[in-house]
Amino acid sequence: MARGTDTDFGYRRVPLADKQALVDDVFHSVADRYDLMNDLMSGGLHRAWKDALVTAVNPPRGKQPFALLDVAGGTADVALKVLAAGGSGTHATIVDINPAMLKVGRERAAARRLGRRTAFIEGNAEALPLQDRRFDAVTIAFGIRNVPRIDQALAEMHRVLRIGGRFLCLEFSSVDVPGLDRLYDLYSFNLIPPMGRVVTGDAEAYRYLVESIRKFPKPAVFADMMRAAGFRRVSFTPLTGGVVALHSGWRL
Ligand SMILES: C[S@@+](CC[C@H](N)C(=O)[O-])C[C@H]1O[C@@H](n2cnc3c(N)ncnc32)[C@H](O)[C@@H]1O
Fold first, then answer.
1. Quick check: pTM over 0.90?
2. Is 142's C-beta closer than 6 angstroms to any atom of ligand 1?
């Protein structure tokens, strides 16, 4: 019998059609402790990486309207940081496929009295339930590597961006500092899954996360995928020796 297309799920090959359900299980299982685990795993560094993303988004400080879309926005970490940096005209729409992650995000926004400046939408990055050219900026942080059809998601994020709007993607990358690469591998494969077991009760979820980082395309390859989706003036900046890259592109 002919087999459908396979794709990577961490180090396993799985049918493309099965990947999303496997990813959803991972994030459903860790949603409640996701933010705590991010702090522990990265030693707090994820905050600095997200701050670099927010600086690049550069929302206006005043009443001027500014519409952000944060795709795979999960617990709204990025969206809440952009709202804190911007003025009263800044509004954030958070799209995520996983209701458990969105529930945590909604509660966090309500606790900060930002409910009216946020919209939470359950949806798939591959088929955004949003109008064309609606947003001034579109972000995705540590989300794109989980999406089965990355090219489709990039095309969708390009579609909903206004002309002159900026796309920013924060994603794990390839460590390019000799010595740091081995240390990083030792840490990721030997410490993160056990830490995940203690904190979230799910070592497998964190094994997948570590493996999926290694399988994600190199930054120059991802930059080409962004160009193919229509983005222009594409560039990327390695952060922390290449542990993470901040990718940027414009809709022109
Ligand atoms: C590692 S978390 C990142 C969350 C958040 N952006 C952050 O940086 O804290 C990845 C998120 O991607 C979401 N996700 C996975 N596949 C998706 C898809 N096809 N469409 C939308 N969201 C997706 C997951 O539900 C999860 O919330």
1. yes
2. yes
